[in-house]
Amino acid sequence: MSVNVEAPSSGNVTPVARRRIGYQNPVWHLLPFILFVIGCMIAPRFADEKGMTMLIYIGINAILAIGLNLLMGYAGQISLGHAAFFGLGAYTSAILTVRPIPAEVIPGFSVGLGVMVGTALLISLGRIAGWKLGAGVVLLIMLSWIVKALHLHAVGFYGVYAVVMAVYAVLVKASWWKGVVTGLMTVLTGCYCFSSLRNVLAAGGASPWTGIVAGIVLTCVVAYLIGGQVLRLKGHYLAMATLGFGVIVEVVFRQWTAVTGGSSDGIVGIPDIQVMDSLPGFVRRALEFMVGHKLDGPQEYFYLVWGLVFVALLIAVNIVRSRVGRAMRAVHGSEVAAESLGVDTERYKVQVFVLSAGLASVAGSLYAHNAGIGYINPSEFGLMTSIQMVVMVVVGGMASVWGALIGAAAIQALKTWLITIERTDMRIFGMELKGLDPIVFGAVLIVIMIVLPQGVVRGLADLAGASWRTIRKRKRIMAGRGS
Amino acid sequence: MNALIETKSVTRTFGGLVAVNEVSMTVRRGRTKALIGPNGAGKSTLLNLLTGVLAVSAGEIHVDGVSTVGRPCYEVAALGLARTFQTVQLFENMTVLENVMVGCHCWTKQSIVSGALRWVGHYLEERRVLKESIVQLERVGLTDEADSPAGSLPFGKQRMLEIARALASKPKLLLLDEPASGLSTHETEELSELLRRIVVEGATVLLVDHDMQFVMDISDEVMVMDQGRKIAEGTPDEIQNDPRVIAAYLGTEAK
């Protein structure tokens, strides 16, 4: 060790030191992106129809895996309920575009959303927790009954909420204006939601883009509320809590038939997203040049999905190498040390949880609008999907943004292969080869954890490096003997 | 105001056990203060109370005139306290350089949005963070290992990295929990050299250690604890000749 007296005491960095450190070398960060863009551009040219479908699914899975990898691989927080966020995105999109919420549900739903936003504000703005928070939420819900009973005009609405919440805020020792903001935002969200849902119902459906954005907003609010509570737990306890959340949401999808269509019907006829018409002419011509002819539905959708994968990758790569990214990786490394350096661990855990849920929601919307399919069903957003997402992250490698792509591709290939096997009516020892997913994914998880715990990409790279070194060593020994 | 940290009868109990019992102390600016005592005397607990890792059961702690009672650990850190741990707590999933960069967290501001979208503020701040981190790495002589995983360093260097990480937060007070334990004589000497230089540059150091030679060598003031209580305080010379201290360490003669 060389803690030497000659080292500069402070202030100046010697050029030698700077050159030796490769942290900011841009080539290794740009190169994968360039390859990625080229790959995406030319892929449709070589893929047949089946291949296109698969590539679209891989893209959707990749967005999921990138989001979950930020949470699991980098921040070290497990979530076994991520399919819930995937489903929230998908259902919000589907409901808004084809199956608007029935009129009798709209008021209740609006109040619910308003209260959720209000609660999120109480937590984030007022830093209120425990029984005080509980009282606040009950108050917000009760206010909606009172306001309804009083038959107030809109102004009265806002006034009652603002005044009552201001009094509440003072009582729980927060600033009064935080109460006012909470009250006003609750009413604003509720009213906006109410009127826009009624418009959507009258018009018979909203545009897919509205669906995607609404899905992100709803999912992020839910994730914030859930994450703030469950992320205080660690390890197994966190896994159990998120698992429970996932199960609850799946049951809601199944049972709330008036809105979601339940498990027998699902939602059918979800429209495609038309992107090409809204793109500038030269982009369209460039894409058509790549494909070689006019784009068909799946090809158009492919570019949309992979464009969003690109955005997700960019966000993930950027965050990992930023102040907040380092803080959240520090949380993974040692929570107590991170706290001792001034990192508000809870805050960053919640932030990455919300981001990850938001990405899952985008993937869900894309899944719902998938070209030529347009059908969703609660069973696609259950525990098995959550586990598949975890397997994707594990296969691709924890804490590896680009690995998530590989993981997504591998799992999708495996799924497609399983479906083909199912169709062949093969039997082994009289056992039908149907519904094999849980068995195969479980086996993959076990094998990867034992053999390549760092994931396929880094694991194989390490293996290759190790065997290369062994070969060279052997060669040197042989050469030594020869001489 | 000369006192950087002032505690008034700080007490911490774990169930029935009183780990720290009504300890009042001050740490003066620009000094090196050492905290010694036999095993289980409550030294590490006191350090944890000062940094907010544990909450006090009773008493008051003021850092730079600000009361820290009831504040979470990260807020106390933002007041200018940085620490190292008895068992080295590195972020083993990150490189050596990144470890130190995390140290810069509390004097930087960029949010997750600015990081994700790479706003100008991100780049400006990142440059300052990188510069400060490299300076700290050079100070402890770890520039050659900057890009290697933190977990791959030998133990002595891990200790140094932990100190560099703490220094990157530009602390007013550096708290070291047994920094010399497990180090070789040579490494301990280098550590003393480093600490002396830090103090000359204006930092204040509070350390807990068992290595008497190291402690007496570098500290201006020594405080002795035994069974949760403060039993003596003074210059190293005074402490070495204090009968209460000798009794605590060696036991009293049977009468």
Walk me through what this model shows.
The complex is a heterodimer of chains A (483) and B (255). Chain A has 483 residues and is mostly helical. Chain A has a domain at 50-382. Helix content of chain A is 75%, strand content 1%. Chain A has 21 helices and two strands. Chain A has helices at 15-20, 27-46, 49-74, 82-97, 106-124, 130-150, 154-171, 176-203, 208-230, 235-255, 257-260, 262-265, 281-291, 297-320, 323-333, 335-340, 345-368, 383-396, 401-423, 437-451, 456-482; strands at residues 427-428, 431-432. A two-stranded antiparallel ribbon of chain A has the order 1-2. Chain B is an alpha/beta fold and 255 residues long. Chain B has two domains: 1-80 and 172-255, 3-Layer(aba) Sandwich (Rossmann fold); 93-170, no CATH class. Chain B has ten helices and ten strands. Chain B has helices spanning 43-50, 73-78, 96-103, 112-117, 120-140, 155-168, 185-200, 212-218, 236-240, 243-250, and strands spanning 3-14, 17-28, 32-36, 58-63, 66-67, 81-83, 173-177, 204-208, 221-226, 229-234. In chain B, the strands form two sheets. Chain B has a six-stranded mixed sheet, sandwiched between helices. Chain B has a four-stranded antiparallel sheet with strand order 2-1-4-5, covered by helices on one side. In chain B, α3 (96-103) crosses α5 (120-140), α3 (96-103) packs parallel to α6 and α5 (120-140) crosses α6 (155-168). Chain B is globular, with a radius of gyration of 19 Å. The termini of chain B are far apart.
Offer a concise description of the structure.
The complex is a heterodimer of chains A (483) and B (255). Chain A is mainly alpha-helical and 483 residues long.
Produce the secondary structure layout.
The complex is a heterodimer of chains A (483) and B (255).
Chain A: H1 15-20, H2 27-46, H3 49-74, H4 82-97, H5 106-124, H6 130-150, H7 154-171, H8 176-203, H9 208-230, H10 235-255, H11 257-260, H12 262-265, H13 281-291, H14 297-320, H15 323-333, H16 335-340, H17 345-368, H18 383-396, H19 401-423, E1 427-428, E2 431-432, H20 437-451, H21 456-482
Antiparallel strand pairs in A: 1-2
Helix pairs in contact in A: 2-14, 3-14, 3-17, 3-18, 3-19, 4-9, 4-10, 4-17, 5-6, 5-8, 5-9, 6-7, 7-8, 9-17, 15-17, 18-19, 18-20
Chain B: E1 3-14, E2 17-28, E3 32-36, H1 43-50, E4 58-63, E5 66-67, H2 73-78, E6 81-83, H3 96-103, H4 112-117, H5 120-140, H6 155-168, E7 173-177, H7 185-200, E8 204-208, H8 212-218, E9 221-226, E10 229-234, H9 236-240, H10 243-250
Parallel strand pairs in B: 3-8, 3-9, 6-7, 7-8
Antiparallel strand pairs in B: 1-2, 1-4, 4-5, 9-10
